[in-house]
Amino acid sequence: MSIRKMIGLHPASATHHNQALADAVHHLMYCTKMCASCADACLAETGMDMTQCIRLCLDCSDICEATARLGLRRTGDDNLILKELLELCARMCEQCAAECERHDHEHCKLCAQICRECAADCRNAAASLAA
Length: 131
Description:
Blueprint: H1 3-9, H2 13-16, H3 19-44, H4 51-72, H5 79-100, H6 106-128
Helix pairs in contact: 1-3, 3-4, 3-6, 4-5, 5-6
């Protein structure tokens, strides 16, 4: 099952469907879980202070979750807030990716990769929304 398909099936999709936003929501959902998983893995790392990485991963997970929830809503219109949230989320994903890239753990590398992909999709979706 695909979230893109689910969004496309929404009755308001005929007038409010946006492929860039559907792509962003898809990545946001994965990024939410990947960041939460990375934070948990960082908690188990020994021999180094992973506090900042954990904090940014958890913050990124929460912001991605909120952004995905708003992006899923096709009834009505709140494009200005959604656009601002997508831009904020892109910045948060970039910040999380930069921190994860500082560490030589495979879970951090995967987290950084999904964060970079998610940031790009969030920027594309924000640019596609009418203000």
